[in-house]
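ESCALATION

Customer reports they have been waiting on this structure for their group meeting. Please prioritize. Original submission:
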Amino acid sequence: MTALEFNYKLMGLQNNLKYFAYTLTSNYEDAQDLVQETYLKALTNRDKFADNTNLKAWTFTIMKNTFINNYRQNVRNNTILDKTDDLYFLNLSKESSIGLPDSDYSVKEIQRVITSVTPEQRKPFEMYNQGFKYKEIADKLNLSIGTVKSRIFFTRKKLMEALKEQ
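Update from on-call: job pushed to the front of the queue and completed.
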């Protein structure tokens, strides 16, 4: 098969390759990139294609292998190796605000607003933030679940209003 025939047949597979790439990636831009990369590999390795074989299967195999290799590379690049004794880096919060002056100020302001709320509303709110479920709070404070939910709701509302003003 001549280079011209090869290129013509390869371009005839464009719609099929786009569809297959989209089924692999589920993203239009990634699918376009995968099609281009497949074309590049098919054209650079044209000499490895055996005449009288299935060109479509050959290019689909190139695409599938390219996708798998890219996926494996992305997984490797996103893997964090933590060699510290206590796994410090893995246990470190991504949203950590340690050492930021604004964060200290915000925590102090939030605590001040929370303590300004009446104790009967503050207690369910604090328990909920500590991880207690509504049912557990209701049982410990001898309240109905509806009362617990409304107290938490109104405390949140007061907290948001007070923090907006500052």
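Sent to customer with the following note: The mean pLDDT is 83.
Escalation resolved.
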